[in-house]
Write a structure and sequence with these properties.
It is a single chain. Helix content is 39%, strand content 19%. It is an alpha/beta fold. Strand 9, helix 6 and strand 10 form a beta-alpha-beta unit. The protein contains 15 helices and 16 strands. Helix 6 crosses helix 7 and helix 6 packs across helix 12. The strands form three sheets. It has an eight-stranded mixed sheet, with helices on both faces. It has a six-stranded parallel sheet with strand order 11-10-9-12-13-14, sandwiched between helices. A two-stranded antiparallel ribbon has the order 15-16.
Length: 403
């Protein structure tokens, strides 16, 4: 099939959308599909190419809404696949009379109205069981295909701790989250995470925090300000070299070694369409602390810690997120700390790796993407097939036979 892929550029691995594009697109190309990327972020000004796949540049308007209709006309694809929040696509009519399948994050409950409106009119791929059920609750059918994680994520032990100046017996908490957006409430729940971490670190002088993010991103949360305000011991905070991080130069093997060096991943948020870092971390043997909401509980199974909270109204989406309780994050951190360097920690790590194995990228592609795309090809072929119109003489002959 000729496929137009609407998402972040696969050459932009610092976002979840970019990393998933980089995971899936080479597999589609290897299966003979003709792929062109319509980038809504990560490819500015002029067309580019990534691993032999053309990338059309983002537009001047947010989410490339000013160019994606024209780009689709240029490509003239059999199918458009979107990997992004679909509510951004509802601002004006686009892709009229084109077949669209949206790989859709659902991180609120109930499904936001704009998301529901879009999904009722297109083929929908749910990236979590939570999303699939939430859509079913309002009468929308979807195909379940989760995000996938490459095999590079496995226990990888290097000199990371020495480079971060974290003692071997120190308890290292890692947060891996993009610092994007600060209003009205950042989805990654930076405030409550830093509050809980600050209190936890003040109680234990061997606790360290590694923040795999851009701590001063323009338009993001001023994380360094949160650290100072909540009293997190700054001599025990570690961050990547910021230019290296921003330019995407920290590759997946290095990220695997970072996960492996950590004792727990702190991934509490207000809501997640999926949550790739949780699975990556688990495959490296490092369990996760997550919110008891949206996709996160299904990712960890019984291998990590669920943080309680209360629902709150997100005015922008007319649906609910969760506000994680600081005391519940703090309690989960304490439980993980008590398991530090015990057989229970090793057992939990083994269970985490086994549970996360279902999200292996090759497995997801073979068992879920290929059948979905084969079904889509059959559907498109059927829609293109001209309907046979009986000849009028044949109708008269049939009537005479009946008489």
């Amino acid at each position: 099939m000729k496929i137009a892929w609407y998402s972040n550029s696969p050459a932009a691995p610092v976002t979840g959308y970019g990393s998933q594009s980089a995971m899936l697109l080479p597999r589609l190309k290897a299966d003979g599909h003709d792929i062109t990327v319509m980038a809504n972020w990560g490819q500015q000004i002029c067309p580019g190419e990534w691993n032999g796949i053309p990338i059309l540049p983002q537009g001047l308007e947010p989410y490339s809404m000013d160019v994606i209709d024209q780009q689709a006309a240029m490509i003239d694809p059999d199918l458009i696949i979107t990997l992004y929040d679909v509510w951004v696509l509802t601002g004006k009519p686009i892709w009229k009379d084109r077949r669209v399948a949206s790989w859709t994050p659902i991180d609120h409950y109930p499904v936001p109205p704009k998301v529901a409106d879009w999904c009722r009119q297109r083929d929908t791929i749910a990236m979590s069981r939570f999303g699939q059920q939430s859509l079913a609750d309002i009468g929308i059918d979807s195909t379940y295909i989760p995000h996938g994680v490459e095999g590079v994520f496995s226990p990888t032990y290097t000199d990371i701790r020495q480079r971060l100046s974290v003692p071997d017996d120190g308890f290292l908490v890692m947060i891996n989250a993009a610092n994007i957006g600060n209003a009205p409430i950042p989805r990654k729940a930076w405030d409550v995470n830093i509050q809980a971490m600050a209190d936890f670190a003040r109680a234990h002088d061997n606790v360290y925090l590694y923040l795999h993010t851009d701590i001063r991103r323009p338009g993001g949360v001023p994380i360094d300000g949160l650290i100072s305000f909540w009293g997190m011991p700054q001599d025990r905070v570690r961050v990547p070299e910021q230019t290296t991080y921003r330019m995407g130069f920290i590759d997946q093997p290095e990220l695997a070694s970072l996960y492996s060096a950590a004792d727990v991943l702190l991934a509490v948020s207000h809501g997640e369409g999926f949550g790739v870092p949780v699975v990556e971390s688990m495959l490296c043997g490092t369990p996760a602390i997550v919110s008891d909401f949206s996709a996160q509980p299904e990712l960890i199974g019984d291998t990590g810690w669920l943080v309680k909270g209360q629902l709150f109204y997100d005015q922008g989406q007319h649906a609910a997120w969760i506000m994680p309780y600081v005391f519940s994050i703090r309690a989960a951190l304490e439980e993980a700390y008590l398991e530090h360097r015990t057989p229970a920690q090793s057992d939990r790590a083994s269970r985490a790796m086994e549970h996360a194995g279902q999200y292996d990228a090759d497995t997801v592609y073979e068992r879920m993407w290929r059948p979905f795309l084969e079904g889509m090809e059959r559907s498109l072929a059927s829609a293109r097939k001209p309907r046979a119109i009986p000849h009028p003489s044949g109708n008269r002959a049939a009537r005479r036979a009946k008489r």
